[in-house]
Amino acid sequence: MSDNQLANYSIREMHEADLDFAAECTANEGWLSEDRTTLEGSIKFDPHGCFIAEQNNRPAGMCIATQYGKSGFIGELIVHSDQRGKNLGARLLKQSIAYLKEGQAETIYLDGVLKAVPLYEWHGFRKVCRSWRFSANLDGRSSRNVRPMKVADLEQVCELDMAAFGADRSFFIRRRLEIYPELSYVMEENEKINGYITGRGYPERLYAGPWIVEEKIENPQDLLLSLALQARGRPISVGVLDVNLKACALVRSLGFEARDDSPWRMSLGWPDDLGTSPTCFAIGSAAKG
Question: With respect to CATH, is domain 134-282 assigned 3.40.630.30?
């Protein structure tokens, strides 16, 4: 593409009026969990980190950069099918990297689908580990120490998540409870919360995560099994970093199988340990970690 043709494209902030286009993009990729509601949450969190590429006022692509202080996460990098081959993906990626670095991010992460890994490596990202996508039909069961999450639990839950994940995801945890209260659970012992899980439910599938459990808890699976009571015949998907050997072994023991096309967790900068604690049993989102 010539410089003049590239000049016809611009990148701007995403607005609520763009959500239908953004949701169409994620649906076309088969990313069921990244629906309009999820995308709207990103705009509410930080509209300046949500980008649209366009030509002559026509949206052509999108990308979302989430700032977590000294860490950042890039997701939803999609160029519309009729606009590919024009270097728009690289331009959106560069814009997102620049935005996060301006916000003082020292390390930037993403979950790179296999076909896009060369693009990310070209821009300096390196592979950290596989970010497995597990799926199974799971029979749920209740547990004496697992109960539905309440608003009053959020302070403890967010402190627990901050210690495990390594950054502040409180906005997204609060929003998850607000939208999916029936899919949010805590594990409690002597009035102390030592684990939690949330999910997102769709007609075709239930997505589990984040799933955080303190070390030395004997039955971390009780949270997932409690959530599975809400599946009602739907398969459950859960994303697990392969550096968490215990979590990978646990979900496999429950009958979960990993997709061969699971993405790579990749990073640009140092350190690269966001979300790699053994207490992080499942990621919260492919687009936000």
Answer: yes
